[in-house]
Specification:
4 helices; seven-stranded antiparallel sheet
Length: 600
């Protein structure tokens, strides 16, 4: 990524950069979660629902994509925005970009990912082939954080491959020792991503969802209220395989890193002018010297890679100057704290049918039949019969193992035992796993997401005394030693949460009392004190059931389902505001929903 080239591979002038500016819970503790295979129960367990429609891509095809991208000569971002194609002007000032620094190992950066894209356009003519490389970061077992200019306008599901588990750059159709190549299931880029007239970019963040989990250790992203990491003079570490010299297009065979200072915004506005978007972007590095000597900076091929401070990602490599070393130039990164809410929603977007919209589980009172309703944004599809779900008194939708496939947590009425229905990737099927014994007296069991701030989804429960407990998730469907939140939670007859209601990227909670008062508990991302004092946001005596299953509309904000005793069901879209406007104008879903004695 940095320092002068030594034995680097030439990639046919591989253009791997952003567009260029056209002008210059533990044993022995009561209620501990225990993982065990599903066993006999007084009530038969539900039959697992259908497995997800994950596209399986043969290893040979993935390696072919890597090989094609290795020989690629395209610039990510340019094809989607032809008008922003870099100008040959020697004074042009923007191109994605490390030079100077040292090699590093996969053990120090196990979360690093290589993003390879190759599209032959279905022709035998190689002149129209599109191939390029970007960096990325594993932020959950199935999620890669990268730059939007590496994703927007490209069909990663059919043309992309992700390599993890190695510090060595993949070469052709041969993987380095320890490396794993994975396909992509779906992609998201920030909806406000744009290319400016000059070729500079804004809102440059994206998330790729893999078609199977990887074993690479994820790294967490920073919080929305992080200011300490962004103080001028703070040191951050950037990682990548990008160019190691301004005088050659060769990229590094080995992962490199460099320590760079974070600068005041004024440094970049002075150099880039209005192309630098304060609040959205981060100015990084000492000003370049005009040559490789004395310059330490990200460079072409590092696009989408992370800037790490305090063990968290605070920036994503976005753009810089052509050839990286123009005198006085700085590197520009996307400021992750600004985009935490949107990125978290993309990381937590698991559902039951691969469309990034949360779906709804219901159970009919008359016979116990379970149904799934799939979201179409502002309404649901016709119900999908998923068999006998009798004998249960609770079902919660979550993705406890963060594998991108939604789990169903349910409690058997007769025993109080709690099970998790989840996708077993090795067996290629949905299975039932027992996670708690005799939780009959638990007043509430819910799974709002990550309330501890470690990036892993958690399970929460209120015991018979009204004490609320966190069972911290461990990213594999199991939980750690429980953490006490506090008492007095018996005052609420419903606790609901699934995601971020206030737009700050932290998991929030709704609590409802018997008189219909609804309170918002804003998340803090702090395990010792996970919620702020409650704020009353609604008086809803007219509804007998509330439910939260995530982002139903697909706009990155958590939504609410509310039902009246008459059976009319409403969708309240989230606004991302921590106020009385927490939900937008309700949308009527339909009538007849009183037949369901159990919503999720």
């Amino acid at each position: 990524m940095f320092s002068s080239l030594k034995g680097g591979k030439h990639r046919r002038r591989m253009r791997i950069a952003v567009p260029v500016l056209g002008a210059s819970l533990a044993a022995g503790v009561a209620g501990v979660m225990l993982m065990a295979p599903a066993n006999a129960s007084a009530t038969p367990l539900p039959t697992p629902i259908s497995k997800p429609a994950v596209k399986v891509v043969p290893q040979s095809e993935l390696l072919s994509r890597v090989a094609g991208a290795t020989a690629g000569d395209s610039t990510p971002g340019a094809a989607a925005t032809p008008s922003a194609t870099p100008s040959p002007s020697s004074t042009s000032k923007i191109s994605p970009k490390i030079i100077g620094g040292t090699t590093t190992t996969v053990s120090t950066a196990p979360w690093m990912a290589q993003l390879w894209y190759y599209d032959d356009k279905g022709t035998t003519d190689t002149t129209d082939d599109e191939g390029f490389f970007c960096g990325g970061t594993v932020v959950s077992p199935t999620k890669i954080l990268t730059a939007a200019h590496c994703v927007k306008g490209y069909d990663w599901k059919n043309n992309g491959a992700i390599v993890t588990g190695t510090a060595t750059l993949a070469s052709g159709d041969t993987l380095p020792s320890g490396a794993v190549v994975t396909g992509i299931w779906r992609q998201w880029n920030h909806p406000s991503y744009k290319v400016l007239p000059s070729g500079a970019v804004d809102n440059d963040v994206a998330v790729l969802t893999l078609n199977q989990p990887v074993k690479a250790t994820p790294i967490n992203i920073t919080k929305s209220d992080d200011t300490t990491s962004y103080r001028a003079g703070t040191s951050g570490t950037v990682y990548g395989w990008g160019r190691t010299s301004s005088t050659t297009q060769d990229i590094s065979d080995t992962l490199r890193k460099a320590t760079l200072p974070i600068d005041a915004d004024t440094a970049c506005t002075g150099f880039y002018g209005s192309d630098f978007v304060k609040g959205h972007q981060l100015c990084v590095g000492n000003p370049a010297t005009g040559s490789d000597t004395g310059t330490v900076t990200a460079c072409n091929g590092d696009s989408g890679g992370p800037l790490v401070v305090g063990g968290k990602i605070v920036g994503v490599v976005s753009y810089g100057v052509t050839d990286c070393v123009e005198k006085g130039a700085y590197g520009v990164f996307s400021k992750v704290s600004t985009f935490t809410g949107a990125v978290r929603a993309a990381i937590d977007d698991s559902n039951l049918n691969d469309d990034n919209k949360a779906d709804l589980f219901t159970r009919r009172s008359s016979d116990g039949t379970g149904f799934l309703y799939y979201s179409l944004g502002t309404k649901f599809t016709a119900k999908d019969d998923i068999g006998d779900w009798n004998g249960l008194n609770l079902v919660v939708q979550t993705d406890l193992d963060r594998d991108g496939v939604q789990d169903l947590i349910y409690r058997v009425s007769s025993t109080g035992d709690v099970y998790r229905m989840h996708y077993d990737w090795s067996a290629d099927q949905m299975i039932n796993t027992k996670i708690a014994t005799n939780w009959k007296t638990r007043k509430q069991i819910y799974a709002p997401g990550d309330v501890t701030g470690d990036g892993l989804p958690d399970l929460l429960s209120v015991d018979s005394a009204g004490v609320n407990w966190i069972y911290p998730g461990k990213n594999d469907g199991t939980t750690g030693p429980r953490i006490r939140i506090g008492g007095g939670w018996q005052q609420f007859n419903q606790l609901r949460g699934h995601g971020d209601l206030t737009g700050d990227g932290k998991t929030d909670l709704l609590a409802r009392t018997s008189d219909g008062s609804v309170y918002l508990y804003r998340g803090t991302g702090n395990a010792a004190s996970p919620f702020l004092a409650k704020i009353k946001v609604r008086s809803w005596a007219g509804f007998n059931t509330l439910d939260m299953v995530g982002d139903i509309t697909g706009d990155g904000k958590a939504d609410l389902i509310a039902r009246k005793p008459s059976g009319t069901l409403y969708l309240y879209p989230g606004t991302g505001k921590a106020s009385s406007e927490i939900f937008a104008t309700p949308i009527t879903i339909g009538n007849g929903w009183q037949q369901y004695g159990l919503l999720s």
